[in-house]
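Internal QA ticket QA-208
Title: Verify multi-chain structure generation after dependency bump
Assignee: T.L.

Test input:
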Amino acid sequence: MAKLITLFLLKLFLLCFLPRSNAVYDVLNFGAKADGKTDSAQAFLKAWTAACGSSSPATLHVPAGSFLLSQATFNGPCKNTAIKFSIHGTIAAPSNYTKFGASGKWIVFDDVEGVTISGGELDGRGADLWTCKLDGRSCPTGATSLTFSNSKNIVIDGLASVNSELYHIVILGCQGVRVQGVYITAAGNSPNTDGIHVQMSTGVSIVQATIKTGDDCISIGPGTSNLWIERVFCGPGHGISIGSLGKEGQGLQEEGVENVTVKSVVFAGTQNGVRIKTWATDVRGYVKGVVFFNALMRNVQNPIIIDQNYCPGNKNCPDQNSRVGISHVKYKNIRGTSATKDAVNFDCSPSNPCNGIRLKNIKLTYQNEQAKSKCKHAYGIATGSVIPPSCL
Ligand SMILES: *[C@@H]1O[C@H](CO)[C@@H](O)[C@H](O)[C@H]1NC(C)=O
Ligand SMILES: *[C@@H]1O[C@H](CO)[C@@H](O)[C@H](O)[C@H]1NC(C)=O
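Actual output:
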């Protein structure tokens, strides 16, 4: 009897405490070909359907080799909240950019929870499209390489994204996203190849990334709150940018940006360092609670900049006046070299001046001359040693 009870308890223990089986779905078993030329989209989608339909944790395995993927949307909701999308090889976009059509997206995860995408490389093969755009021919907009939309508890880990046609990674309408150890690269003159774009999302962290691109390394759109960025190398590129904001909004009202921290970032040869940029239109919105600290600038054209006069082509900016209010922005311990004389430039809105700007321990130099600070409609305080001297 005692023996039976022991056996029963042992079984119960095993059932309760051992990890549940992690089903592995290898895309090769669903017909994918690692030959770089057979479209594996259907195979990937079938493997996803299996992983997503599993009631226990599941792994979708993409082995070494190159997989051509025309386009894929991985939809949830799924039956489990622990799916690993584990990439060991390269997933390549079609070489002919006209094949994307007008959707603007290559690989999409929508309405998923608890998905981790790791390792491997996404190759957007964007170079022909960039050439088309740079030549001024009429070309399609192109596609974002990887989009997570309307999703929760996402991890993007150790992924490389190269040569996207448009943005590399977009996080839209998500809650709880950790992007760590990603490597992003596209030519320094490639149009609109932003590294990571975050919008309408909360609780996103981007930690330890290397981003070299033709547009913003990281861009932050409306409706972003509680964003943490740390240990990023940026360059070439246009820097880390909150905005552009205030372009269009429902009934002239746009969601604000709140609680953004950018910490320990190196900018090398970029157009901007830390930037906040709003259109000079009558769309209302706000940016508040931003901290930029421990940044190193190496030959950056606009190391610290707020530009509320953005209006390319001077269209739909009747009075050149932004309604996006910018407040409580702190710059602390920002050092290095500016590639222009105006190392600090606060060009704020006449009707909505920037307030609560704080500068502390800044040292930005320009060649052998004294760099300058410029302020328009900007209020706040400077403490510690601030070079060039504050104009707040
Ligand atoms: C790309 O596809 C389009 C439409 O199918 C075709 O007209 C064009 O010739 C292709 N380009 C190349 C380089 O194959
Ligand atoms: C921003 O941070 C403050 C202070 O930690 C917090 O009270 C506020 O709720 C945060 N805002 C959002 C939108 O989460």
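Spot checks passed. The first strand starts at residue 23 and ends at 26.
Status: verified.
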